[in-house]
Amino acid sequence: QVQLQESGPILVKPSETLSLTCTVSGGSVSSSYWTWIRQPPGKGLEWIGCIYHSGSTNYNPSLKSRVTISLDTSKNQFSLKLSSVTAADMAVYYCARDPWGYWRFDLWGRGTLVTVSS
Amino acid sequence: QSALTQPPSASGSPGQSVTISCTGTSSDVGGYDYVSWYQQHPGKAPKLMIYEVTKRPSGVPDRFSGSKSGNTASLTVSGLQAEDEADYYCSSYVGSNNLVVFGGGTKLTVL
């Protein structure tokens, strides 16, 4: 079955760029819609943005100036870059699938905790 | 975009029913039938329980049901079981900005 796995540095310095990759196994990134969601420790979920199989993107307006989501079909991956991070960006970052573009997330990665600290 | 409003906690005894509300606006919950509910156990990723207000993914027990009235969506868990104890989050599509907003989460305790 389709599985998602996040990977990337788990410690990022303030003002630097957070970079995460989600590898899709058992399926293709060339179908469906792909999303990043984060959850600060002890807090709720926040939608970061999504990328369609066409490559077009939508971002949370509160993060839009700092976020880039991209697709690499050759590696069957999609990625998140968040620039100029602060302590407020410390969170568990999840990648997830929206199977039909109807704004529901039926498949999630296990999540990766990214710490922002010097 | 403001988060959807959920009660911070809810509780019920085994076998009972409990309903969790999720209040938004006419720009999100009230305007579209793209409301979803997620269950999250500690240290785990969220799991989709309800989508498009009332639909259940394959494998989700029919004890879980969803509904909507105006700007408020609801998740009802019937026949509460110990394993239902978890955090529950609602989400909704926001058409004006083509994005998703989540509720603050509700911690469900099975007494």
Strand content of chain A: over 45%
The H-and-E topology of chain B, N to C, reads as EEEEEEEEE
| Percent strand of chain B | over 45%
Average per-residue pLDDT of chain A, rounded, comes to 96
Tell me the helix content of chain A: under 10%
Report the helical percentage of chain B. under 10%
Query: How many E strands of chain A?
Result: 11
Oligomer: heterodimer
Radius of gyration of chain B: 13 Å
Helix-strand category of chain B: mainly beta
What does this structure look like?
The complex is a heterodimer of chains A (118) and B (111). In chain A, the strands form 2 sheets. In chain A, strands 2, 4, 5, 6, 9, 10 and 11 form a 7-stranded mixed β-sheet that branches. Chain A has a 4-stranded antiparallel β-sheet with strand order 1-3-8-7, with no helix packed on it. Chain A has strands at 3-7, 11-12, 18-25, 33-39, 46-52, 57-59, 67-72, 77-82, 91-98, 107-108, 112-116. The model of chain A has no long low-confidence stretch (mean pLDDT 96). In chain A, 0% of the residues lie in helices and 50% in strands. By secondary structure, chain A is mainly β. Chain B is mostly beta strands and 111 residues long. Chain B has strands at residues 9-12, 18-23, 35-40, 47-50, 64-69, 72-77, 86-94, 99-102, 106-110. The mean pLDDT of chain B is 96. At the A-B interface, strand 5 of A face strand 7 and strand 8 of B.
